[in-house]
Design goal:
Layout: H1 2-24, H2 30-46, H3 51-62, H4 74-92, H5 97-109
Length: about 110
């Protein structure tokens, strides 16, 4: 019985790499080639970025978006700045709940 298990183990160890090697014989599709080239280019551009910064950059780069994609327009930027200012004012006044909502609405609207 032990001999049979040893023979089966040997057969499995020899057959597994052969089965995996069959997939490697296929040539990559055009889409795969483009994605590989994009991945290589993005890796070079990522340089020494690390962590979340690298993940975000790679995601954007691999989607084919340029570095300015997703950047807010001037109008959006102005609204974001106004929102930040209103938030600071509300925080300084320790506003919470409904009072804060009313203040923010007035501040952002006016």
């Amino acid at each position: 019985m032990k001999g049979l298990l040893a023979v089966l183990s040997c057969i499995l160890m020899l057959a597994a790499p052969l089965a995996l090697a069959q997939d490697k014989g296929k040539a990559p599709t055009e889409a795969q080639k483009k994605q590989q080239a994009r991945m290589s280019a993005c890796n070079k551009q990522a340089g020494d970025k690390k962590g979340d910064e690298r993940k975000k950059f790679m995601s954007t780069c691999l989607k084919g978006q340029d570095k300015t994609a997703g950047a807010p327009s001037a109008k959006q930027k102005a609204q974001q700045d106004k929102m930040g200012d209103c938030n600071k004012q509300a925080n300084l006044k320790n506003m919470k709940g409904e009072d804060r909502k009313r203040f923010m609405s007035t501040c952002l609207g006016g």
